[in-house]
C-alpha cells in the first residue's frame, strides 16, 4: 500500500514541478525578449532531458553505472523509434 501512495505522491510532485519549471522559464525568457517558439522548444528539450540526467547522476554516484548506461541506450532507442 505504501508503494501506491508514494507512486501517487511522486506523480503529483512531478506535475507540480513541471508546472513551476514551465512558468519560471517562460517568465524569464519573456523578460529577455526571446520568441515563444524558442521558449517552447527549449522547455520541451530541457523537460524531456532532465529526468534522464537526474537518473544518470544518481545512479553514477551510487555506483550503479549499469542503470545509467541502460537509461542512455533506452532513451536513444525510444527517440529513434518515435519517428
Outline of the structure:
With 83 residues, this protein is mainly α.
Kindly describe this structure.
There is one protein chain. The protein is an all-alpha fold and 83 residues long. The protein has a domain at 55-83. Helices cover 88% and strands 0% of the residues. The chain is built from three helices and no strands. It has helices at residues 2-31, 36-61, 65-81. α1 (2-31) crosses α2 and α2 (36-61) runs antiparallel to α3 (65-81). 0% of the residues are buried. The model has no long low-confidence stretch (mean pLDDT 86).
Q: Any chance you could write out the topology, listing elements then pairs?
A:
Layout: H1 2-31, H2 36-61, H3 65-81
Helix pairs in contact: 1-2, 2-3
Structural class, by secondary structure, is: mainly alpha
* Structure annotation, total helices: 3
Share in helix? over 70%
Note poorly predicted spans: none
Radius of gyration: 16 Å
> pLDDT average, as an integer?
86
| Strands, count | 0
Strand content: under 5%
The CA-CA distance between the termini, in Å, is: 38 Å
Biggest β-sheet strands, sense, barrel = none
Order of helices and strands: HHH
Shape: extended
Amino acid at each position: 500500500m505504501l508503494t501506491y501512495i508514494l507512486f501517487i505522491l511522486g506523480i503529483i510532485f512531478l506535475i507540480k514541478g513541471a508546472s513551476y519549471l514551465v512558468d519560471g522559464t517562460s517568465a524569464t525568457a519573456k523578460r529577455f525578449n526571446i520568441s515563444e517558439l524558442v521558449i517552447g522548444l527549449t522547455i520541451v528539450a530541457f523537460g524531456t532531458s532532465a529526468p534522464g540526467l537526474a537518473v544518470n547522476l544518481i545512479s553514477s554516484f551510487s555506483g550503479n553505472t549499469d542503470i545509467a548506461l541502460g537509461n542512455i541506450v533506452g532513451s536513444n532507442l525510444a527517440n529513434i523509434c518515435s519517428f
